[in-house]
Design goal:
The chain contains 3 helices and 9 strands. The chain is α+β, with helices and mostly antiparallel strands. The longest helix is centred in the first third of the chain and has 19 residues, at 2-20. The radius of gyration is 23 Å and the shape is globular. The N and C termini lie far apart (63 Å). 20% of the residues are buried. Residues 1-23 have low confidence and may be disordered.
């Protein structure tokens, strides 16, 4: 009788372990940044209106001012923070001069992830969005979500402007908000309007389109 119970107990143990484990998978994150920063200034370059002063006789002699850095869309990059303490940059580095980008096949194991979406500049980077992704907005994920929130917050000081930029002038410091979203909250066709961008998050089949260069 005891010999018959052993295989059954082993099977129950394996099933329990399987139910408790996190299933590995992939997700796709699509983002559409607003045309300007939250303060209305362009992502890159100088505002055109700043370089178009009402100079007398401009209609005759032309505008003697010129814009040394025309406004451009952002160069978007996505930092990914996982619960193992890793911080990685998504391999998609082609999102230059665009407000739309897709970050495909992000590893996801039914846990909590942190995202920092930024505009990469030569001198100081700009924050577009900071996000904490959870499987669901239920009490069981609160502690882990708060722990990830602190880790994301630790990434944000790099985006504080250290000096006055000639094109943009002095700006008051703004509080950078971290947005929490659930895995099933922002699917394609619905999406989520966040502080300075629009996101969709979907499960991925792992396929890569060879024509997305």
């Amino acid at each position: 009788m005891k010999m018959r119970c052993l295989p059954l107990l082993s099977l129950v143990t394996l099933l329990s372990a399987g139910l408790g484990a996190h299933a590995a998978g992939l997700i796709n994150v699509k983002v559409h940044a607003n045309e300007t920063k939250s303060d209305g200034l362009p992502w890159d370059g100088c505002p055109s209106t700043f370089w178009d002063p009402p100079i007398p006789g401009k209609s005759i002699f032309g505008n003697i001012m010129y814009n040394p850095a025309e406004p451009n869309p952002p160069e978007m990059r996505l930092l990914i923070l996982d619960e193992d303490g890793n911080v990685t940059t998504h391999q998609n580095a082609t999102c230059n001069d665009t407000v739309q980008c897709e970050f495909e096949n992000v590893p996801y194991s039914n846990g909590v992830l942190g995202f920092v979406l930024m505009d990469v500049d030569a001198t100081s980077h700009d924050l577009i969005e900071a996000v904490v992704l959870v499987p669901s907005k239920s009490a069981q994920w609160q502690d882990r979500a708060q722990a990830m929130r602190k880790r994301v917050e630790a990434q944000l000081p790099r985006f504080a402007m250290a000096e006055v930029n000639f094109c943009r002038g002095p700006r008051a410091a703004k509080k950078l908000k971290i947005e929490p979203i659930a895995l099933d909250e922002c699917p394609s066709g619905v999406g989520c309007e966040l502080g300075n961008s629009f996101w969709t998050v979907d499960e991925s089949d792992g396929k890569v389109d060879a024509w997305k260069w």
